[in-house]
Amino acid sequence: MQVPLSNQVDVAGFHSEATRLLAQQVPPDTVEWSAAPAQAVEEESLDAERAAIRNRAARAIIPQSFVRMSELVVLHRDPGRFDLLYRSLWRLVYEPELKNDYGDHDLARLRQMAQAVRRDIQKMKTKLVFRPLHLRGEPEPVAWYEPTHYISESVGAWLAKRQPGAHWILLTPDRSMRWDGIHLLSAPAVAPGQEPMAERSDGDWARVLEAMPWR
Questions:
Q1: What is the DSSP code (8-state) at residue 150?
Q2: What is the count of structural domains for the chain?
Q3: Is pLDDT of 214 > 90?
């Protein structure tokens, strides 16, 4: 059974589909998860809780500890993460004693993946450096970063909440983001190797950024 997700970090979609599959008693070895490549998205508010499980059935079936871990694991670049998550969830539901087995390989792998994502998020927050570029005559803080995992949106949301009055542009190979003080806007990703602080002049990068279709 093919189960498509809308994007590489579609944790809400995973929770919804996993709940449906569990309710239908669909075993993990018959499910093949697929996620669409990362793309620019519509303008969105940071208040939109995209990862939230909104229906009562999902909250009843999926343990909250698993929900919290899955929100990190889906940001990992391992292409088999959705298969591992659903297999582990199936086992937790049908093997209740599994939650006390700290030597289980699947659950240990999930914990390792979640920890790797936590470290990557902390590293990006620590190492992110903004440099002012003049766009349309005004200085705009711009930063380039190439994270190990799919954490750009998570860190972008953190930055916006941390400095709500600031304006900035964050470029990554997965997604380009612009915070205008109210909304987190998106544009196509920037390819690796096009670091604005190294390979191109400020003028070149200003022209690239001004031409981006921010939405």
A1: S
A2: 2
A3: no
Q: How far apart are CA 143 and CA 135, in angstroms?
A: 14
pLDDT for 43: 38
Reduce the DSSP state of residue 136 to 3 states and report it: coil
Q: Where are the alpha helices (DSSP H) in the chain?
A: 11-23, 56-61, 64-73, 81-94, 105-127, 152-162, 202-210
Which tokens sit at 200?
């191109």
Q: Model's pTM, two decimal places?
A: 0.84
- Spatial distance between the Cα atoms of 139 and 141, rounded to a whole number of angstroms: 7
In a shared domain, residues 114 and 148: no
Residue 179 DSSP SS3: strand
Contact at 8 Å (CB) between 184 and 46? Answer: yes
Domain range for 190: 128-210
Helix (H) or strand (E) holding 32: strand 32-35
Distances (CA, A) of 106 to 23, 34, 66, 102: 22, 20, 13, 10
